[in-house]
Amino acid sequence: MSRKLLINILSIVFLAAVIIALPIMLGSVYWTSVLVIIWINILLVSSLRTLKLLGHISLGHVGFSLIGAYGSALLVMKVGLSFWISIFLGGLMAAVIALALAYPFLRVKGIYFVLLTLLTAETFRLIAWHWPSLTGGFWGLLQIPSPNPITVPVIGTITFDSVNSYYYLTAVIVSLSLFVLYRLERSRLGFKWRVIQDTEVLAQSVGINVMWHKMLNFAIASFFAGIAGALFAHYQHALSPDSTARFGVLMSIYLLVYMVVGGEARFAGPIIGTVVLTVVSELARGLGEYKPMMIGAIAIITMLLMPEGLVGLPNRVKLWYRKLLKPKREMQGSA
Amino acid sequence: MDLPSQVWVQAIANGLALGWLYVLMALGLTLILSIMGILQLAHGEVYMIGAYVTYYCCVSFGVNLYVAMFISMVVMAVFGILMEKFLFRPVQTQILPPIVISLGLTLILMSSAVVGFGLYERSIPRLAQGSFVFLGSAVPKDRIIAVGFAVALLLLLYLFLKKSKYGQAMVASAQSREGALLRGINPNLMSSMAMAIGCALAAAAGTLAGSILMLTPSMGTFPLLKGLVIIVLGGMGSLLGAAIGGIFLGLIDGVVPVAFEPAVASLAPLIIVILILLVRPQGLFGHE
Asked: Complex ipTM, two decimals?
């Protein structure tokens, strides 16, 4: 028990050290900015997986991310709030809108949820496009300020203008969010979600309010999508409602592909999938317009050959290994 | 609002013409959904590639437009059968894998189109030139012909499903896969047929749209969304629901942008879908 705890603590310390050291080790602004996007995408994909705990597949997560992004940016720019409040309010806005949509969306069969979320995201995007007085229309929202500097007693004032400092900010916020999502999944609430996914009728008959738990799940997932959006907005300083940009259908597709390639059964799946696929597609930058083709092919091959994703790889390797060893053992047994 | 009546007639005519094209998309989607139980999210890309096949037949090889459209439908039907056999059949009974596979296909087909056809806009020759006057406003002839084609295809599909042996087998398979299997109906054959018919309809829709609007590699996303909305409106597996939902949506698309601001107009489909789901979760003509 204590040994296991020690290993856990050591691996967390090691992981934290790697995360802190990465931008210094890489030493390039370009790769650090890739890392920031990876962090933000990890939060998006992980909250997408929170929906999957209830068996819901969303193609509209970018829509709630858009709400958080525009919401937080506009609160800072037009109302004059501090970033530290607006990021939270951005997430909250996404959660409230999700809660309002949840009842009609979750009452219908599961496959409808995919269509409805897709429609929702496109609707939000089109509203941002067609409302120039608020969102800047198709020119996009420009000159979004960086987070306000904070003053820490010992270290002094920290500003978030540079990529490196924003990397640490994102790392902290996303890690905290992931911790919350992880604890939620292991909590009583997460347990009830699993029961509902397994047998909805049984869950209802033992007194779980199925509808409320589904709505809560949708709201929580959307809250973190909103947080991710706000992080993105204050990092890029500009938002565009274009279909090829951050909040289009293509991004929704990528998020889902990250999740399944990583493996949606485990909490680590989305993290592994996002990191691996982002790094692969960054390395394959030379492919240019062939890049989506490669991601698409990876998605299809994963589904056909390894549906449990990358997190299932160790088990699979173990299985192959055993198969290879088995004939030998049988020979030994007969001899 | 004080708009002249011609504007309204024009808006309604435009909306109806596009509405029928969306119906063709929705019919394919709902056939595939009800028989195979999968959501074919690459259907918009089938529509787009169908349009390009017609374009190349017409412009590069000088084939007659109507023949080219037929060729495109056959090509896409074969493509659909291949997709079904090699990609969707292995994962048919699950929920997540078919969605991911169809999304992967979307990425592959869209980027292939960007690489192969280029990003600039093209146009299929018009179905007809000129326009005629209806209630004091000009309605282009090619839209009327497009609507005629769409209605004819819908009627053909209806007759096929109601009167022919294979059509009845498909209806049975959609109602109960196991029941159909017990009666000796081959479910794999039914899936192939659903996919072939769905893709042929999408190719026809793409061609008709391509002769009214423009061809671009990303042209498929919008009609796919419209088709999905129609399925939700009309109810899963209902042909009549799809037809009425399509006309309804077309009218909204035509009239609402004229009457309201664009931001409000883009909100309209979502609001209507939500309202209908609140009253009838199974869609207008669906059944549990």
From this structure: 0.88
